[in-house]
Automatic annotation (TrEMBL):
Keywords: Cell membrane, Membrane, Transmembrane, Transmembrane helix. Its main location: membrane. It comes from Leptospira brenneri. InterPro entries: AA/rel_permease1, APC_superfamily. Gene3D superfamilies: Amino acid/polyamine transporter I. The chain crosses the membrane at residues 12-36, 48-69, 90-109, 129-146, 151-169, 189-209, 221-243, 274-294, 320-339, 345-364, 385-407, 413-431. Pfam families: AA_permease_2 (PF13520). It comes from the Bacteria. One of its GO terms (cellular component) is plasma membrane. It is found in: Cell membrane. This is APC family permease. The keyword rRNA-binding does not apply. GO terms for molecular function: transmembrane transporter activity.
Amino acid sequence: MGEYMGQSTDKKALSLFSLVCMAIGLTIGGGIFVLTSVLSKKLGTTLPYFYLLASFPMFFIIFPVAVLGRYFPTNGGIYFYPSRLVSPRFAFLITWIFLSTASFGQVPLFTLACSDILFQIFPFVSKDLWAFLILTVFFLLNVLGLKPVLFVQNLLVSILIFLLGYSIFRLTDLQTASLISINSFPSFGIGLETISILCFTYFGSNAIIELGNETGKPKHLLKAFLWAFPIVVFIYFSFSFAISTLGTGNLGSGNSEYLFSLIQNRLTPTEYKVFLLGGPLLAVVTSLNGIFLIQTKSFIGLIEDGWFPYLRKGSESPSYIKIFTIIYILSGLGLYLQWNLETLATYSTVGWFFVILAQLFSLYPAKQILKENSYFPKLFFKTEFAVITVLGFGFAFLLTGILLYRLYEDEKLLGFIVVMGLGILYCYLISKFGKQKLIEKQNRKQEILNLYLKSEDIYE
């Protein structure tokens, strides 16, 4: 278990500050700008309060996952926790869904979003070339190792927060801000729909548990979430509040054009360019940087467990460069084909929800393992924590259902079923003909217990 999933040789590579930056960077993406534009047309001055309301169910969903990472720190938790605490085959399937659709859809979509912004400022290079250059830069950065990735992530997130703060300060017009009343809010049904949409903007900070082996202090995984989450909530509320004070623009314009025209009218030309670079661009770039790293950790976990035997020689751990290269090629292919990128990105989000549900469910068998061995960490066994976990599972299940229903309404559910079917088929073939040996249940339990014993909580 010592080197499972590419365990870092420098256990203090990830400080609390780095974890907070990673969590913020993975959470704040382009969605806040698109959704703020779309929803501000309908909701006006009430939008900031819906961002606040959406944060509550997401806290219940993500907090228990952060606790899971805190007590059982490991790399590649997307695959590891479900494989050891639920089912190895089920864990493979949900990881397959997430990794394949993220590589072919989400990463190319993010790079194209970055290229659109850069093209507005530097139109002398084509958008497709900008996208390829961005993808290549982050591939090379990740090949250099974890420390360069963390340095860049820390720097970019710091700049992102500073420039977003400056933009919020410049955009907010307190003279036009008005008090809201109950009558200002839309109907109950529209309100629930809005909250469910905005919930997706808070995903990301839970992904830091994928890097549990990279820090010498597992409690920092939980602390990082407790720092990052309120910072993101504050930024979302403040940004949407600032936009709500700008009045209404051309309601007939496109979604992104509507928001950016309001902002452009408020800022000087130089400030607007700085906003594009420091707001939407950095928001997407920091998410892209984090996703590259997260994908690799879980991919290594699949290889370590024998799901891709042709990528591993004997007992040797898979090469990081080889894994990054495979992800780079897959994402480059997705960028070249540009086949239904938004749909594939939605499939990736559904896959991410499956992962969250599996991780939340994993808390129960993890608790049983601790009980069997007479370990009772206070936070893990509190009644309040059990209630939060149940609520989180309920909210995650509801949001997953909403996503699947939207895919059904848009006649895109069949594609998701195909992706899942391919995963099931591969799982069957590799189990039958690839001589893939699943880890025995007792050994899986022992691995979980070993993780807990290695966390510093046991010695406090």
